[in-house]
Amino acid sequence: MDNLIVVDHPLIQHKLTILRDIETGPKEFRELTKEITLLLTYEATRHIKTHSVEISTPICRTEGKMIEDKKVTVVPILRAGLGMMEGVLSLMPNASVGFIGIYRDPETIQPVEYYAKLPGINDNEIFVLDPMLATGVSSAAAIEYVKKAGGKHITLMCLIASPEGASFISSKFPDIKIFTASLDEKLNDHAYIVPGLGDAGDRLYRTK
Ligand code: URA
């Protein structure tokens, strides 16, 4: 899987271990989700374009480089993707945000999109956020939606990926890079990632 990047760093490993722990409560879970996402964003944005600007330091005129974060769009998949949004926005505060709500129909097992609102995306760099890349079905539906809306430069960011989900996305969208903090062992019979961290949405918002 050439397009899967596991961002392996001691800080990420440390934070992810606390995140996985069943004893970690929602406040810390949200803080860690934000921090890990911020660290992933550092790697996932290496390719974005910079432009030169002239500035004055207290010593002299000089040229520096800047990114155009207005040309970045963040697309969290509701609801757990919301937990990652602040991590990206803390580094690129002028990015626009689009939302896609998807659930899996328990009868058909097909993804159902129940809400979508995207800003104009033109040639923007788009970061789709899905903390748990499990089967990959929701991420794939969100990526399809963004592509249909004209998105061309799409990156998927997640906290934990399963081998099944990563290979599904990777073969369906060979042009899309996936950044994750961990590639876990497998999916269980209920499509939860093992060892994983449980249900990310429930842990973010204490709904169980
Ligand atoms: N969604 C989650 O929140 N956790 C999983 O393990 C799989 C999907």
CATH-scheme architecture: 3-Layer(aba) Sandwich
Strand content: 25-35%
What structural class do helix, strand and pairing data support?
alpha/beta
- Let me know the number of strands: 13
| CATH class group | Alpha Beta
Q: In total, how many domains does the architecture comprise?
A: 1
What sequence of helices (H) and strands (E) makes up the elements?
EHHEEEHEEEEEHEHEEEH
Rg calculated over all Cα atoms: 18 Å
Mean pLDDT reading: 96
Oligomer: single chain
Rounded to the nearest angstrom, the distance between the terminal CA atoms is: 35 Å
Helix count, DSSP H or I runs of 4 or more residues? 6
CATH fold node name: Rossmann fold
Biggest β-sheet strands, sense, barrel: 9 strands, mixed
What coarse outline follows from CA principal-axis ratios?
globular
Low-confidence parts, pLDDT < 50 over ≥5 residues?
none
Proportion in helices:
25-40%
Cofactors, ions and other ligands in the entry = uracil
